[in-house]
Design goal:
The protein is mainly α. It has twelve helices and no strands. The longest helix is centred in the last third of the chain and has 20 residues.
Length: 221
């Protein structure tokens, strides 16, 4: 159980730095996702998963995890399905097959709760995006967003110089959350939701602006 007093102290540090607390972002994301349609939620989840896939594929090929690479073509099917580039029934069938294969694979049997496992965060974000495409549930989109934060936290933890740059008055826990990788992911999630709120209506098979929206969501990913 989290300590509200401790969270408030960290929030105070981050406020002074002009930065976001991940709990506040989660509290904002939840109702925004609830107000979106299923296709818009899927686009949010897929955008998060895309960023993590991009980061993971910067690794040398021999270091890439098969569980992450499994989802890369699936995400392409999701995007194509959202924009009508691929037949809806066909895309649903392909995504459902990939999800089913994951459920039946040894990878699904292992725990998926290691906060230091960046590859697992990338894989699970894509899995949640695929499930969101099939069902449209806000929870799947939200969980994908959480994995985006977790992945960014792992990246931040590999920055050995960051702790040494901490201002004396800032708590260590606050400084960890202030890392640019974490703040960039939080900012991007909120920006994506604002974009989807404004332009998400284009996510149908006839709207001309759909591809423009998808390009914006995938930009930088």
């Amino acid at each position: 159980m989290r300590d509200p007093i401790h969270d408030d102290a960290i929030r105070e540090d981050l406020d002074e730095l002009g930065l976001r607390h991940f709990l506040d972002v989660r509290a904002t994301v939840r109702p925004m996702l609830a107000n979106l349609a299923g296709r818009q939620r899927t686009a949010f989840a897929a955008a998060v998963a895309d960023r993590l896939q991009h980061e993971h594929h910067q690794l040398p090929e021999r270091e890439r995890a098969a569980i992450v690479c499994h989802w890369r073509p699936v995400l392409e099917v999701v995007w194509d399905g959202l924009c009508g580039r691929r037949d809806g029934k066909q895309s649903v069938a392909e995504v459902a097959e990939a999800v089913g294969a994951f459920y039946l694979s040894p990878a699904y049997q292992k725990p998926h709760d290691d906060p230091a496992d960046a590859a697992d965060h990338a894989a699970m974000a894509a899995f949640y995006a695929a499930e969101c495409y099939l069902h449209g549930c806000a929870e799947f989109a939200m969980w994908s967003g959480w994995r985006g934060f977790d992945y960014a936290s792992v990246l931040a933890g590999t920055d050995r110089d960051w702790p040494h740059r901490k201002p004396p008055r800032v708590r260590l826990e606050s400084w960890e959350l202030a890392h640019p990788a974490i703040q960039a992911e939080l900012d991007r999630q909120l920006a994506d939701l604002e974009l989807l709120d404004e332009e998400g209506w284009t996510l149908d098979e006839t709207a001309d602006g759909c591809r423009d929206l998808v390009d914006k969501l995938r930009g930088g990913a």
